[in-house]
Every structure is written in structure tokens, then in C-alpha cells.
Known about the structure:
The complex is a heterodimer. By secondary structure, chain A is mainly alpha-helical.
Amino acid sequence: MFTDFLKTNGPELLIKAWEHLYISLIAVLLGILVAVPLGILLTRMKRSAPVLIGAVNILQTLPSLAILAFFIPFLGVGKVPAIIALFFYSVLPILRNTYIGIKGINENLLEAGRGIGMTSWERIRFVEFPLALPVIMAGIRTATVYLIGWATLASFIGGGGLGDYIFTGLNLYQEEYIIAGAVPAIIMAIFVDFFLARVEGKVVPRGLKGTKQAV
Amino acid sequence: MLKLENVSKIYKGGKKAVNHVSLEIEKGEFICFIGPSGCGKTTTMKMINRLIEPSEGAIYINGKNIMEKDPVELRREIGYVIQQIGLFPHMTILENITLVPKLLKWKEEDKLVRAKELLKLVDMGEEYFNRYPHELSGGQQQRIGVLRALASNPPLILMDEPFGALDPITRDSLQEEFKHLQRTLDKTIVFVTHDMDEAIKLADRIVILKAGKIVQVDTPDEILRHPANEFVEEFIGKDRLLQTRPNVELVKQMMNRSPISITEEKTLQEAITLMRDKRVDSLLVVDEMNVLRGFVDIETISEFRKKATLISEVVNREVFSVKEDTLIRDVVQRILKRGFKYVPVVDEHQRLVGIMTRASLVDIVYDSLWGEENTMTTESV
């Protein structure tokens, strides 16, 4: 039964999977570009940081379908609004982890940095960012796995992706369509997370790996 | 070189952490700030590189007011060694040492040359370059911390209880090493500590602070001999005051001038005979020029009696010695702290000239007791 499905839909499945992947990845990439600098900025604003994090938290609780629908009047349907909506969801985990990662750095190290004459930018670049990187990477991995799941909803507003199969399957009571949508999405999430774990291993400074205490 | 003029730090709420401190420090001087916690010693030090901005007064380095300088530039010209080491765990030793040169945009090859020079200063090899801080012992880490401060060759170095986290024996040897380093490199040092032993050992002048004010500024000897008031006296401690008897100061005045020694080419049998004659359980080993080479004790000899015949085969080369013009009080500290039974005394060419034993210490104590019977008991030995 399923082999028949693959025979007729195989090439299309690949295209859908590819759509799914790049919608999620572009959204995560945008999320990283916005959330990491914003998270660093938040660590510089002692008073407003908790308020802003709270605000982003609330944004996160909005139902994803509602967000997707919300963008239709402004951006219409298609891939762009889907990516933008997903991007909003990627911001919070990355932002929060960046903030926590940097806040958690040992005060002594920051003072050492200041004491030997680092500018604010040099401290971010040479001390704070590398030391917070393991925590930031954890946030990026969480966000990516979430987004690959949520990207199925993009189908609702014409964004394409594996969600197309799932919704077709639901509408027509065709199990193989649902499976054809869900299983590749799961496999994709697992693979991407594995890949990101490898990336993390590459970018996290070697000196941090042997230390037991979390930075 | 460094001048503090009426410097105060007042925090919000009116708390005066530092209260009208004035001080002049000469080039090449080793200054220790000491006092109970909350006395303002760290605050005063941190105002020198503007980690804390003074509320009142002015600080001059070589006649220039530091407030007119960019704080980042100022800090790059002043070495800084932090409490608890403060090496960056994600950087290799090489990267840590050459951090300030990197901030100053030195060329790669200059940085490498400098890093090699620096490691040589503390007898560490280039194999450490690519290690990470957590792979080093506490003592090695703090050596690297000191090197990082020395990297761009700043004339002035600030140190905030740098040896506080180390175990007593490592601390002791690092202090020794660092004092020597400071003399050879001719650096001006401002050193914060709460450990009076450390201050006495290292400082040219000690600045005693209490509640944000300077109580006394003087050489260790002057402070020990003439404490300014009761607070200082209490802070130094009574037993330490006794160690500074004016007529006995140097090791050579108290040492036993006829240490029992033997040369390396003698046999173990001869050593045993000598020990029996002189009624001692260890012998200092010297060469034909009377230069100290090591020691042998009765345990080692009986252990190796079957396997070895010559002293040179069993001599223990890890012998700790002091120079004859060391201050008595430093030797006393060491004998007590490290639990040595004796310390050989050498001249500047490492030639054996005498020995300080626990018996010599007892003599010193008896001398002290003669004068101040009521304040000291033999228990403190």
C-alpha cells in the first residue's frame, strides 16, 4: 500500500520535504540573527530585561494557528508569511538561552576582562559570547526541532511543506498521506538535531568541555 | 610614580568605603594594602585602574591624572591579577597570556616571542601553550595569571589577593618566586591581601587600612617594631611582634656554624659511622667546593644498604635551603609551616655555611621568654 504511494508521489514527497526543511531553517536563521544580538543587548539592560523576556513569553503562548492566520491580512498567503510566523516562535528559546547563558558567566571572568582593558565589544566577542555558546546552541537546537514540527502548519496558509500531506490525509481519511507527512518530519527533526549537535561540538571552545561546572 | 591625593569613594546612601586616602608610591616599590574585610583595600586598588571611579580626590600616574585618560587605554597600561585566578577557560594558555598584546594589536610573531619569554620566567615550557587552564594545577594557573599581567610589560601591576585560593605550600613558593620576579623586572606593585605573613614577606611598604582610612604606612620592620596603635598591634598579632627582636634578625646570627656534612664519593658505611659519631640522623651532602648537593637520612641509607655503596647513589637532591642573610622570621615561618626538622643555610654561591635546626628555634624562643615571660609560652613552637 505504502510502496504504491511512494511510486506515485515519491518525487513530490522529496519536493515537499525540501520545502519543509528550508521554511524551518530560514525561520531559525532569522531567529538566530535577531535573538542572539537581542539577548546580548538584554543583558545590558538590567531593569527592562525581565519585562521584555516576559513579553516574548506571552507571544510564545499565542496559538500558532492564530499567528499564522493573523498574518494573512498583512502578508497574504504563501511561504513568506509562513516563514515570518515561524520566525516569531524561534525567537524566544534562542533569546532566553542567550540571556541566561551570558548572565550565568562567572563575575570574576568579566572583571578580569574589564581589568585587563577590554572594551565592551571585546568582552562580548572574546569572553561573553564564547562562554555562553554552549547554552545558546542548546536554545538553537530546541528552536529548530520545534520549528520543524510547527512548520507542518504552514500548509494552512499555503506555505507548502509536509503539512500538505497531513492535511490532505485528514480531509480525505487517507492514512498513508498522514504517515507520508508525519514520518519524514520526525526523521528530519532527528537528523537536523543530530547535525546541530555536531556543529555544537565544532564551535564550542575545547577548553570548556573538560570543565564540570556550567559556565 | 603613583600618587593618590585625598581619594575618597562614597557609595549611594553616603557610605564611605574609602575616606581621604593619600599615598605616594615610588617606582619599583612593592606595596601591600592590608586590613580587615570591608576596610576599603580592594576599593582603593580598583580606583587605580578605574574599575571603580573615585568620588573625590585625584590619582596620578607619572604625574598624569588618570581621570583624563580613556579607562580602556589606562587598564591596558596597568597589569591586573585577579583574585581566584580569572583565566579564561575557553582560551589556551597561549591565548590567555597574549590577550593584552592581542588587544593592543601586536603582530603574531611578536606575541609568540613574548609568550615564550614569559613562560621561561616561571620555568614552564612551551608544551603548555596549547593546554587549557583546567588542565593545570592551581599554582600553575596563578603563575599564568601573573604572566598575563606581565605580558605587555606594564610598569605598574595591581594584584587582588592573587594567592588567596592556593594551598599554603604552593602559596609560599609562589610568593617567593613572585618576589624574586618583581625584583628582577623592577615593577611597581600594588598588592591587596588580608594575610599579614604574606604582606610582611613581600612588601617594601605595608599600608594598613581600617574603615576606609590609612592607619599606618611603613616598612614591615617598622610596623613590627613600632605599631602605630593598638589596632595595628592586634592586627599583626603578638607572637609576630616577638619574632622581631632587634638584636637577632638574620639567619647567620642564629645558625649553627658547624653542620655535619659529607661528600658524594664517600661510602654508606662511612656515612653511618659519621652519623653515629655526631649523633645525627641525617647528613648534608656537599661537593668538594662545599656546595650543597642534597641530603641523606638514616631511613634512606638503611633502605638502600644492600643495593648501593656510594652516597652519590642515594642522595636526595630535593633539599630546601635558605640564604644566610634571610630574616629569622621567614625561616621560622617555613620551618613551622612545612614541618622541616632543619634547614641548611648557604651563602650566595650555594656553599654550605650553617644549619638552622629546631633547637636553634628553641633558643630564640627562650631568648624571647627572657624578656616577655608572660606573653608567650613554649606551646607556640
